[in-house]
Amino acid sequence: MAADVTAKNLPLAKAINESLRRALEEDPKVLIMGEDVGKLGGVFRVTDGLQKDFGEDRVIDTPLAESGIVGTAIGLALRGYRPVVEIQFDGFVFPAYDQIVTQLAKMHARSLGKVKLPVVVRIPYGGGIGAVEHHSESPESLFAHVSGLKVVSPSNASDAYWMMQQAIQSDDPVIYFEPKRRYWDKGEVSAEAIPGPLHKARVVREGTDLTLAAYGPMVKLCQEVADAAAEEGRSLEVLDLRSISPLDFDTVQASVEKTRRLVVVHEAPVFFGSGAEIAARITERCFYHLEAPVLRVGGYHAPYPPARLEEEYLPGLDRVLDAVDRALAY
Fold first, then answer.
1. Which of 1, 10, 289, 322 has the smallest count of CB within 10 Å of its CB?
2. 135: annotated active-site residue
3. What pLDDT, in 10s, does the model give residues 4-15?
4. What single DSSP character describes residue 42?
């Protein structure tokens, strides 16, 4: 097979930038909106250079008003546009929460399917960068609980590129969580080879003894855990869930039926987190296959701590390996 001449080795943030650039080039109805997304190029430079190349009417610097940003995007979507809005940091999304859950998520059902709202809400999320308060939240389960919203999170540059393409092309609103601690992780990105459906989980490492399931920033950690476990003769399978709502339970089930054990890892608090739904559903589906209870590793049910303590709050190698040991001890 001929080499893919379009493949590039890109940081995850640059992969999103290139995906947004392609969408702007291919569809004049695509707009980008947010605080400092234009002249500054975003605080993480994800939108760098786009306003310069596409103009202020396509890449729009907005006031500091998240509710107004999403509300305006809803109006634009009703007029046939495909807005991509940036919430500058995860903890800033809550002023827009009302617009997202009572308008954006409900309009399709309220109109009996006549109205579509192709809006993408980009949210850099998670910790690991030493940020101040309100800059390291993981609110994905809040949005996954709301019917009418699709919720996804890439873990690598290739998925970041293609999942953004697929999100923009979706006629349903998509909450696109970007793992900010992985913005600078590089990976090969092909502009031709679509990696798969938007809501399909992927086995990123084959194993036989236990399944680790994660998404976004924790996938890389789970691969490191699998490496460490392999040194002790343990074979761990790693799943990248990719989509949180809808969630590909079939792929998780197939893996657990093989390994008979499951540990779910995410940065968000374990209490009422997405791991709880996965644990409940897999217990129902795989009751006679499981040889241990489904275990969860995540943040604590407490406000996100100051930066000097975040490594104690976030799941790390030792905490995940401890859960692996407990599951294998049954």
1. 1
2. yes
3. 547 799 999 999
4. -
